[in-house]
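queue> pop job 88
queue> type: inverse folding (structure -> sequence)
queue> payload:
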């Protein structure tokens, strides 16, 4: 308990995978770039049609393909932005947890047994005894993403 309160980031380490958020942000950048390319390609196809370089059928087919790709890319971008935003919210939550943990840690010795028990029940999901060690599982929920469930 004291270790968690002294280092609340340890509580949230499993819940917050910053590498996944970083990857999502990088992929979002690539998706945005591809959306810009698709828009330029659409303009190029329109110019070719205006100049009579391609038929109406070819123009319509190209626009239809670009619109389909655009919908897929926009949906993916939305997913990625939600991942990045939810990770930012978790980071904010970790900061708030850190502040709260500092306050509680300062007053931990002043708590009576009932209050300590309540605190333990709030922070601990399960205690497992193994050969020569005790594993304490925190009540921090993992951040749900496509990768982990």
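queue> result:
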């Amino acid at each position: 308990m004291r270790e968690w309160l002294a280092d609340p980031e340890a509580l949230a380490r499993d819940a917050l995978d910053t590498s996944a958020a970083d990857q999502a942000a990088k992929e979002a950048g690539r998706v945005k770039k591809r959306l810009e390319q698709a828009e330029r390609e659409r303009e190029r196809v329109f110019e070719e049609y205006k100049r009579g370089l391609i038929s109406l059928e070819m123009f319509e087919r190209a626009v239809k393909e670009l619109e389909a790709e655009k919908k897929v890319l926009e949906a993916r971008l939305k997913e990625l932005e939600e991942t990045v935003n939810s990770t930012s919210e978790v980071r904010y939550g970790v900061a708030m947890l850190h502040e709260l943990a500092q306050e509680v840690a300062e007053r931990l010795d002043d708590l009576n047994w009932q209050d300590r028990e309540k605190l333990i029940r709030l922070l601990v999901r399960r205690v497992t005894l193994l050969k020569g060690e005790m594993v304490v599982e925190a009540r921090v929920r993992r951040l749900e993403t496509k990768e982990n469930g």
